[in-house]
Amino acid sequence: MSSNFSYKYRFDNHNTKHIKAKFSKKMALPNNIGDETNEVLAAQAHILNHVLNYVISMSLKCAIQLEIPDIIYSHGRAMTLSDLLNALPINKSKGHDCIYRLMRILIHADFFIQGEEGYLLAPTSRLLLKNESLSLAPFVQAQLDPILMDPWHSLSEWFTNGDSTPFATTHGKPLFEYAGDDPRVNRLLNEAMGSDARLIISVLIKNGKGVFEGLKSLVDVGGGTGTVAKAISNAFPELKCSVFDLPHVIEGLEGGNNLSYIGGDMFKSIPFAHAILLKWILHD
C-alpha cells in the first residue's frame, strides 16, 4: 500500500474543528479498493490528527502573545492581512506568508472569522481579549507554558520511578512547592485560576443563587487569590467567606467585611464552615 499512496496535510473546509489528513494519488487507485485498506488509511489519519493537534494550541498561544485578538478588536472593523501585518510588532520578513498561515489555522479552528473585508473576532477570540473581564487568556498561557508542558515529556519516566507527579520528575519538586519558590510560576498559576474562576462564578451567582441560601459561612479550599470568594461575599453580604490556600498564595492579601484569608495545607486540616467549596481542587 505504501507504494501507491503519499499523504499531505491541509485544512478540511468541511470540518473546522480538526486538522484532517488527506491523501492524494501518485498513481491511479484501483476501483475495488478494499475495506482493509480504507481501515488502515483511517487509522493512520486518526493517529496523525491527534499527534498534530498541538499545532492549533501553539498557534493560539502565539496569537495571544502577539496580541492579535486585541489588535483586531482595536481596529474596530474587519482587518485586512496588510493592516494586521502593519500593526504587529514582528520581523516583517516573516510577515505575509507566515501570518497568513497562522490566521488560516486559527480561522479553521473557529478562533477568528474570515469576512469578505478581512479578519473578524469570533466569540472564542473575544474571550481572549486582555481587557475582557472574563478573559481566559491567562489560563491559556499558563496551560501552554513550558513549566506545565515539559512534564508531559516525562510521563513515561514517571511511570517507572517513585516521584509523586510528572512535574516532580521534570522539575525536582511538586508543583505547589515549586510555585512557592518561583514568583513567576506562582503569579502564572494564580492569574490562570483567577481567569477561569471569574467566568464560572459569574454563571453560578446568576443561575445558582439557591445554593447559597441559608448558609452562614463558607470556606473556599484552594481558593487562590480569592476571585470566587470575593464574588460570593459581594453577592451575599450576610455570608462569611474564607479563602483557604497555601501561605505563599495568599501572602499580602487582605480581606474585609465578610471576607478573610487563611493560610494552611488542606491535606492536614480545613477550617470549619457550614459549606466547603471545592473548585478545580479534587485532582490535587
UniProtKB/TrEMBL annotation:
Keyword Hydrolase: no
Keyword match Acyltransferase: no
GO biological process, one term: methylation
Gene3D superfamilies: Vaccinia Virus protein VP39, Winged helix-like DNA-binding domain superfamily/Winged helix DNA-binding domain
Domain O-methyltransferase C-terminal: 152-284
Gene Ontology molecular function: any one: protein dimerization activity
Ranges where the O-methyltransferase dimerisation domain occurs: 49-130
Pfam families in UniProt: Dimerisation, Methyltransf_2
Keyword annotations from UniProtKB, A to Z: Methyltransferase, S-adenosyl-L-methionine, Transferase
Protein origin, superkingdom: Eukaryota
Protein family (similarity comment): Belongs to the class I-like SAM-binding methyltransferase superfamily. Cation-independent O-methyltransferase family. COMT subfamily.
Name of the protein in its database record: Uncharacterized protein
